[in-house]
Amino acid sequence: MSGLVGKLKAGVVDPGSTIKRRVAVGKIKVLLTHPFTGFRLLRMKTIFTDALPTLGVDGTHLFVNPHYLTNVLNTPDLLKGVLWHEGAHIWMFHHLRRGTRDPHFWNLAGDGVINWHAIKERFTLPSGHISFASLRAEGYDLPKQDNEYTTESLYDALVPQGRNPGRAGDEGDGGPGDDSDDEGQDGDDGDTGDQPGEPCDDGDQPGETGDDGDDGEDGDTGETGDGEGADTGETSGGEASDPFEDVGGTGIVIDAEDDDGESLSGSELSQAERELASEIHNDAQNAKSRGKLPASIAEYVKTLRDAVIDWREKLARILGRGSDYRNDWTRLDKKAVRRGLFAARRTPDGSGNIVVAVDTSASVRQDEYQALMAEVKAICSDVDADEVTVIYCDSRIAHVDTFDDPSQIQERDLGRYGGGGTDFRPPFDYVEDNGLDVDTFIYLSDLECSFPDEPDYAVVWVSTTDKVAPWGETIKLDKVA
Predict the structure, then answer these.
(1) What is the total count of domains within the chain?
(2) Of 480, 417, 427, which is closest to residue 449 (Cα–Cα)?
(3) Do residues 361 and 247 share a domain?
């Protein structure tokens, strides 16, 4: 196993029965008062390790350094607050959404977002925890209202400013949050990173299947489930970052990996995300039945179900054209190869060539746009299309990209071009003028325009509004999660 999970398991220790019991009791306390997050914690097997300084989660495991519990999380309230924080990383999909972002700043942004909610729920956190107040005290310029930031937007605000809070020798040295107490952090915000309007970043984003919560009964390794294999990252200044660094002391999130310790593929991420979204919906129902589901989380879950599951599954069914598969000997099955076997890749039959037209006009919000592009990337990877052509268009075509291996599409490959008015005709004209062979044409838009004549190939409109196209199939994206 080559990923971070393997490194953590290599440091497994037996903390003794007292520490095991403390973690088990801490999980139960979260479950009793905040069941939505408590269910997440119970599904994660506890592994005690000295390979990281604090705590960490990957969606399947809760990794705990027993010395940190003894020396820092030495009260029930502190332990409960940090356990809730780690569980929140999972229902915010942080282990699936990072993509190619620097892991240090991704954790920093996630911590800021989560801790705003933690303070709102009156949890006690370590004195040096990351907050919007502490980030500003470190010199970061965060001009928006705290409740306007998502994990992605906070990350984008932090990285260009080039500071690394709490690292010796960096600007603004000294740990962030030293001046912030545990009581309401000036209402900082951090939108759950998953509230309506937040980008769902990366077709990958996918998730854990969730082990049985072992609640720290033992420190054995168990199955790895997910966790991603990005061992290290680089800071914006090019400095190699410690993948287990925890500036705020509230624990870190680790990317999901497969059973071999490898990063999840686009299709694996997509599948994992759908499974996690389904589990989250069930957890919310259970919490609601107990009268302990905060309104903000209830809205988030509704958005998640509408935007992440429903529209994507509809689109996947259209692109997949059923359940027929073919053996493609030009592309070997990667999992079989890792086991020393040579087998043809099983490919859904009929997905063929996909054209994606993207409405880049000013009427389509940036958050909607980013989420749509991320989801289409995941879908194209899922159905293993032969070729994907992406046409960016407002009132005219601004840019065209063609990918002959959609599974290799990265989030950075999908940009935004144009930004003027709207005209749906140019992408269809481009297909005809260039003689493109089209099996399915997907148009992402708010449908705020008149329509051209219907072509002789299948067209799917993914709409961010209530409008329905006069022909083709319209899939409504109620909200963006």
Answers:
(1) 2
(2) 427
(3) no
